[in-house]
Amino acid sequence: xxxxxxxxxxxxxxxxxxxxxxxxxxxxxxxxxxxxxxxxxxxxxxxxxxxxxxxxxxxxxxxxxxxxxxxxxxxxxxxxxxxxxxxxxxxxxxxxxxxxxxxxxxxxxxxxxxxxxxxxxxxxxxxxxxxxxxxxxxxxxxxxxxxxxxxxxxxxxxxxxxxxxxxxxxxxxxxxxxxxxxxxxxxxxxxxxxxxxxxxxxxxxxxxxxxxxxxxxxxxxxxxxxxxxxxxxxxxxxxxxxxxxxxxxxxxxxxxxxxxxxxxxxxxxxxxxxxxxxxxxxxxxxxxxxxxxxxxxxxxxxxxxxxxxxxxx
Length: 313
Known about the structure:
313 residues; alpha/beta; Rossmann fold; Alpha-Beta Plaits; 6-stranded mixed β-sheet; 4-stranded antiparallel β-sheet; 29% strand
C-alpha cells in the first residue's frame, strides 16, 4: 500500500461570508495522478492555492510530504511544483533565461542549471526555441514551458491547475503525455480539469467537487457506478417526439427516459427482454427502430447527474 503524501482534515476557506471550500478531507497517495473535477466556482483552484501555500486556510489541518502546512510552508514549497492556469513566467525572457532564473531561486549551481535546462527543454520540445522571447510563443508552447519551469527543481509533487484549458488538440495531447511520463518516473500529480475525457484517461483517483464540497470520489469506474439506474439503452428512430418520451416513462420497466442529441436514452430496471419490449413498443407506434443498444454510463453522465445542468459563472 502506498502512503498518503497529502492529507487534509476539514480544509476550509472563507472569503467574508462566502465559503469557497467547505471542510474537505483529502487523501492523496504517493505516486498517483489525483484528479479534481468540477464546474466553474467549485473550489478547485482555491483548494490548490491553499495546498501550494499561496493562500492560508481559514480552518483545517494539512500535511504535505510529512510537513505541516501551518508551520512548515517553506519546506513544502521546496518539494512541490506548480503549473498555473495562466502563463506566469517572464514574457521578455527566453526559455533558457526563464529556467535559469528558476534554478537560481532554488539555489542550484550553474552547471546543474545548464544541464537541467537543456534536459527539460528537450523533454518539452522547446530546445530549438531556447533563444526566442517567450512572450511570442503559442498557448501550447507557453504551457509546455510552464511545465518545464515547474519541475526545474525535480519536485516530489506537481500541481497542475487546468493546464490544457484553451489549447488545441495537439497541445492537449502533448501536455497529457508529458504528465503521464512524469508520473511514470514517480512524481505525484494533482490535476484539476473541466475535461471529463481527460480525467478519465489519466487520473488514478478522481474527486468531483461542487460548491466547495467533495461530492464524489474514487476511480472512474467506481464513480460511474454511483448512478443507480445501471442499465442505459440508446434508441435511434426516425422521428423521436416528446409524446413518445412521455409514454416510455410510463412503462413499468422504465426508470426514466429523455432525448439527447437525437437519440432516446432509456434507463431500465433490468436487461432481461428489454430489446424486445422496446422494439415492440416502437412498432405499435409505427416507429421504425434504426438501432438499439446498451450504453455504459460515462463520467460526464455522472458529473451532470451530481452537479446538475445549471450554468456556472
